Amino acid sequence: MPNPPKPDDRSDNVEHLQESLSNTMENMRETEDYLKAHRGEIGHEQRADLARQQSQRAEAIEGFRDEIEDEAEDPSR
Which of 43, 45, 46, 57 lies 20 to 30 angstroms, CA to CA, from 11? Predict the structure, then answer.
Protein backbone atom coordinates (compact mmCIF):
# COMPACT_ATOMS: atom_id res chain seq x y z
CA MET A 1 0.00 0.00 0.00
CA PRO A 2 1.59 3.33 -1.05
CA ASN A 3 2.21 6.02 1.51
CA PRO A 4 -0.11 8.99 1.30
CA PRO A 5 1.54 12.27 0.28
CA LYS A 6 2.75 14.45 3.11
CA PRO A 7 0.86 17.69 3.63
CA ASP A 8 2.55 20.76 2.18
CA ASP A 9 4.02 22.45 5.26
CA ARG A 10 5.43 25.83 4.30
CA SER A 11 5.44 27.27 7.78
CA ASP A 12 9.22 27.58 7.83
CA ASN A 13 9.81 28.60 4.19
CA VAL A 14 10.76 32.17 5.05
CA GLU A 15 13.26 30.93 7.63
CA HIS A 16 14.88 28.57 5.11
CA LEU A 17 14.95 31.25 2.43
CA GLN A 18 16.52 33.76 4.83
CA GLU A 19 19.18 31.23 5.79
CA SER A 20 19.97 30.56 2.11
CA LEU A 21 20.10 34.30 1.47
CA SER A 22 22.47 34.82 4.39
CA ASN A 23 24.73 31.96 3.28
CA THR A 24 24.87 33.24 -0.29
CA MET A 25 25.72 36.76 0.86
CA GLU A 26 28.48 35.37 3.08
CA ASN A 27 29.88 33.40 0.12
CA MET A 28 29.94 36.60 -1.92
CA ARG A 29 31.84 38.46 0.84
CA GLU A 30 34.33 35.61 1.20
CA THR A 31 34.95 35.56 -2.54
CA GLU A 32 35.46 39.33 -2.60
CA ASP A 33 37.93 39.05 0.29
CA TYR A 34 39.74 36.21 -1.49
CA LEU A 35 40.00 38.24 -4.69
CA LYS A 36 41.42 41.22 -2.79
CA ALA A 37 43.92 39.11 -0.85
CA HIS A 38 45.15 37.14 -3.87
CA ARG A 39 44.70 39.63 -6.69
CA GLY A 40 48.21 39.18 -8.08
CA GLU A 41 48.16 35.38 -7.77
CA ILE A 42 44.90 34.60 -9.56
CA GLY A 43 44.93 33.82 -13.25
CA HIS A 44 42.50 35.22 -15.79
CA GLU A 45 40.51 31.99 -16.04
CA GLN A 46 40.04 31.70 -12.28
CA ARG A 47 39.04 35.38 -12.05
CA ALA A 48 36.47 34.81 -14.81
CA ASP A 49 35.11 31.73 -12.99
CA LEU A 50 34.81 33.66 -9.73
CA ALA A 51 33.14 36.60 -11.50
CA ARG A 52 30.64 34.18 -13.06
CA GLN A 53 29.91 32.65 -9.64
CA GLN A 54 29.45 36.10 -8.13
CA SER A 55 27.00 37.00 -10.87
CA GLN A 56 25.02 33.82 -10.25
CA ARG A 57 25.01 34.55 -6.52
CA ALA A 58 23.72 38.07 -7.14
CA GLU A 59 20.86 36.62 -9.20
CA ALA A 60 20.13 34.06 -6.49
CA ILE A 61 20.04 36.80 -3.84
CA GLU A 62 17.49 38.73 -5.87
CA GLY A 63 15.41 35.56 -6.22
CA PHE A 64 15.63 34.78 -2.50
CA ARG A 65 14.48 38.30 -1.65
CA ASP A 66 11.54 38.05 -4.05
CA GLU A 67 10.54 34.67 -2.60
CA ILE A 68 10.83 35.92 0.98
CA GLU A 69 8.61 38.87 0.11
CA ASP A 70 6.07 36.58 -1.60
CA GLU A 71 6.02 34.14 1.32
CA ALA A 72 5.69 36.94 3.87
CA GLU A 73 2.73 38.38 1.97
CA ASP A 74 0.98 35.02 1.52
CA PRO A 75 2.42 32.21 3.66
CA SER A 76 -0.25 29.79 2.41
CA ARG A 77 1.19 29.75 -1.12
Answer: 57
Could you tell me if residue 1 is inside a domain?
no
Quote the domain boundaries for residue 51.
13-35+44-73
What's the total number of domains in the chain? 1
Q: Please give the distance of CA 58 from its chain centroid, rounded to a whole number.
A: 8
Mapping DSSP onto H, E and C, the string for the chain reads: CCCCCCCCCCCCHHHHHHHHHHHHHHHHHHHHHHHHHCHHHCCHHHHHHHHHHHHHHHHHHHHHHHHHHHHHHCCCC
**Is 61 part of any domain?**
yes
Residue 8 inside a domain? The answer is no
pTM listed for this prediction: 0.79
* pLDDT tens digits, 18-47: 999 999 999 999 999 999 999 999 999 999
